[in-house]
Amino acid sequence: DGVGHAAVRGFDNLKEFDRREALNTITLLGLLLHRLGRTREEYMEDVAYKLGRLLAAADALHAGYNAMERGGSALPPRLIGNAALPLAQADPPRALEMLGRRWGVYAGWAKRNAGFRVPESKAGGSEPDEKTRQERARAWQIRNGISAALRAADLAKELHGRLPARGEVDDRFRAELFLGYVAGPPRSDEIGSSDGSNANPKQGDE
User: I want to staple 132 with a disulfide (CB 3.0 to 4.6 A). Which of 32, 90, 128, 187 is the partner?
Assistant: First the structure.
């Protein structure tokens, strides 16, 4: 669950020890894949990595929904992409089926709120107080969740008919799946049909 929350909030928000361990794990997996002859350019275009990013997009969507409908930026105990991740490591088609059973509520929310925009920061003036910072963080979480729904739809189209069946998943697939998951949802400029308007992949980029 902690990995899912970190993927939504950003690894900079992890405790120092946890962040170091997470980054060490990511680095190690990348090195192992390189030794297996898999370059970064290759695995980033493959099915496992993109499935991981789809699950990360599902987490961002769930977090955005929660921020608007539950009235706060606190994340639920288990995000929907994170919940499907263990199954995706063994049976990717079933993991997508599991995700699909919960997808409708969140996708419908994103469609209804597609016009949501983050309020502009006031030019000049004093440093915003804690309440204002929290409100903007919540607004970005909502906006990023809405954008993630569009990107997830594009990823799902790319993955259609390409997922390995149960029994065909190997350690390389699992490693690339995890790397895609921790990479987070695609940016608006990575998938052509996504709507990147008012999308801020990192809350701090203001």
Answer: 128
pTM above 0.90, yes or no: no
With DSSP H G I counted as helix, E B as strand and the rest as coil, what are the percentages for the chain, rounded to 5? 65, 0, 35
d(CA 19, CA 183): 14
- Contact between 151 and 185 under an 8 Å Cβ cutoff? The reply is yes
What's the pLDDT tens digit per position in 28-74? Answer: 777 776 777 777 778 788 999 999 999 999 999 999 999 999 876 57
* pLDDT tens-digit series, residues 126-156: 677 788 888 888 898 899 999 999 999 889 9
Answer yes or no: are the C-beta atoms of 84 and 55 closer than 8 Å: yes
Domain segments of the chain as ranges: 2-116+128-183
Helix axes 16-35, 2-9, angle to 10 degrees: 90
CA–CA separation, 168 and 92 (whole Å): 10
Burial of 28 (0-12, 13-18, 19+ CB in 10 A): exposed
Residues 109 and 119: their CA atoms lie apart, in Å, by 20
Beta carbons within 8 Å of 54's beta carbon, 6+ residues apart? 81, 152, 155, 156, 159
